[in-house]
Amino acid sequence: MSRRPGILVTGGAGYIGSHCARALDAAGYRPVVYDNLSTGHRGFATGALVVGDIADKATLTRTFAEHDIAAVMHFAASSLVGESMTDPQKYYINNLAGTLTLLETMREAGCPRLVFSSTGAVYGNADSKALPENYPCAPINPYGSSKWMIERVLADYRSAYGFGSFALRYFNAAGADPAGGIGELREVETHLIPRAMMALQGHVPDFAVFGDDYDTPDGTAIRDYIHVTDLAAAHVLAIKLLLEGHAGGAFNLGTGQGFSVREILAAIAAETGREVPHVVKPRRAGDPTYLVADPSAARATLNFQPGHSDLATIIRTAWAWHSKAHPLKTGAPS
């Protein structure tokens, strides 16, 4: 048996999970990717791949037994804000109920260490200040609500069972592996940066800015963007602390700097030399005006220092990935 600690990465064939599995491997751990491949990609998986759903307790139990799992990184979830508004049941079943099955299996396997993929959406429609972790959580969509419920479950497990867990609340994950091997690749893309780039490539004919009447300097919503490589590094730091006996807690992963939708489109134009064609549509239900992290607690506890999250690096690595993953269509904007 390998002496490298085995880390189960649920959703490890998806965008963020696959970057984290690679970071684990590079840091001397043994990633075991567990993914139902509904949105993930077999070719993104690093290490052993188990095709399974977190609701499938039998497969989970067998995976823990066969792979000697020391800790878990949990990314498997439904994650589209708009869809959560129209189909909340899917989000509570997949995210909350699925996580409860995973936690039950972990306890039975004697594996009480978890790094949970949470979100800045737990804060809801916050004010314009950078948000610390003690800011009141009041999610305004079922996606954020499901994540907040799981955080509460984890706090109870920590108190009752001595279960070590980090809930890492990241804001807008962006960018791609600087080596170009993996990036954002979804059948239906909803995120701003990849969708804008696909519009440039001629793959998205209906790119829209949702709302230009927000109470912000240019009228568009403001978000904190963090490079996926930096997210992965933070997850590895959290795993290390859990294996050393740290109890965990909730931490923001962001930069503390916000950019509006129009600022992102301008940065993409500067990198690519092409203006993103778009129309303005009404705001979407469930979208807050301003969502920016106060990352000081993660710096202090995790020693988290983003090294790739300047906007230029985010856009450059994302464009390199999309240029490879989505070749330019004839008739695309020039």
* Rounded Rg: 19 Å
Main sheet: strand order: 3-2-1-4-5-6-10
Low-confidence stretches: none
Give the biggest sheet: 7 strands, parallel
User: At the fourth CATH level, what is the homologous superfamily of the domain at 6-174 and 225-253?
Assistant: NAD(P)-binding Rossmann-like Domain
Tell me what the CATH architecture of the domain at 6-174 and 225-253 is: 3-Layer(aba) Sandwich
**Could you tell me the number of beta strands?**
13
Order of helices and strands: EHEEHEHHEHEEHEEHEEHEEHH
Oligomer: single chain
Overall average residue pLDDT = 93
The proportion of residues in beta strands is 15-25%
Number of helices: 10
Write the layout of secondary structure elements.
Layout: E1 6-10, H1 15-26, E2 30-35, E3 48-51, H2 57-67, E4 69-74, H3 81-86, H4 88-109, E5 113-119, H5 142-161, E6 164-170, E7 172-174, H6 192-200, E8 208-210, E9 222-227, H7 228-243, E10 248-253, E11 258-260, H8 261-272, E12 279-281, E13 290-291, H9 296-302, H10 311-325
